[in-house]
């Protein structure tokens, strides 16, 4: 199968969804690496107001469009998406569009775009909604949902994303036992009886299972979600779940940062759905990429800083009841004296994860 084949002359579109940290960007990178030479446009939508995901997608010839609107695609940005798709259509060659939705997004309105806008519908074909599921953390959300607590947290979003999928990829199976993966797969099957389900580590899926599958089935989508094609779906998001973005000039001290992240994870782990950052660490000539969820985090090397480029750190945290002032103070306390930021930092707040 050639994944770049257009469907009836239309450009195929894959919508990647899945809760925060499930592995969507990892899958985008897997696809871009494997599909080298194809013209793939990637549209990124982030929950935070400072874009980070675009920096995490591997550098390539592909074009990456950001939709960092501080909200999610499902709320306000459908017209932005339509504008981007219109502009893309004028390109010489385009083999595929990948839309990576924010982990908080409801995929339904995104999918609707390909049916309700005539111009988009004439030129693009929704190939599949692919939902990534975090093998390690999804169970907690499903438990909450089954206990009737779906509206008290993100569980309903996780369940909506699963229900709406054409393909489900249970990712991060390295973090659980085979029995746990099997049990989770059974639970997913009860929510969505028809989506193909595969498992992966680091989203290294067989691309035949997620691309060029023409899996999107309007009739089934409409039963999975009765709000389908209703212009105003009236969905809502838990107002306690917010995104806090912090941007600081200068360098951070690695040890101070690691200690702060450990304190933060210990104090706020259950409520801390996601941390992502591109950071400047003192004495390091490459960017540091921070990835974390709940209590877990990892730091890895990113692209080098160019000579003369201003060194700065961007951090996005998504979670329940986050305190922006404390988070800012906590990160600011990790800056090195050379940046001049320490002298001006707010006094310690006394909070366990504060400065
Ligand atoms: N152990 C393990 N880690 C993984 C796997 N897949 C992805 N990760 C890591 O999990 C973290 C989150 O992965 P992403 O691909 O950024 O997840 P995402 O769904 O794009 O996250 P958001 O954009 O925040 O919604 C990163 O640190 C990845 O390296 C996996 O299969 N196993």
From TrEMBL:
Alphabetically ordered keywords of this record: Chaperone, Hydrolase, Nucleotide-binding
Record's catalysed reaction(s): GTP + H2O = GDP + phosphate + H(+)
The keyword Nucleotide-binding appears for this protein: yes
Keyword Transmembrane among UniProt keywords: no
SMART domains in alphabetical order: CobW_C
Gene3D superfamilies xrefs: CobW-like, C-terminal domain, P-loop containing nucleotide triphosphate hydrolases
Transmembrane segments: none
Any one annotated GO CC term: cytoplasm
GO molecular function, one term: nucleotide binding
Top-rank taxon: Bacteria
Cross-referenced Pfam families: cobW (PF02492), CobW_C (PF07683)
InterPro entries: CobW-likC_sf, CobW-like_C, CobW/HypB/UreG_nucleotide-bd, P-loop_NTPase, Zinc-reg_GTPase_activator
PANTHER family: COBW DOMAIN-CONTAINING PROTEIN, COBW-RELATED
Family under the similarity heading: Belongs to the SIMIBI class G3E GTPase family. ZNG1 subfamily.
Listed name of the protein: GTP-binding protein
Source species: Streptomyces albus
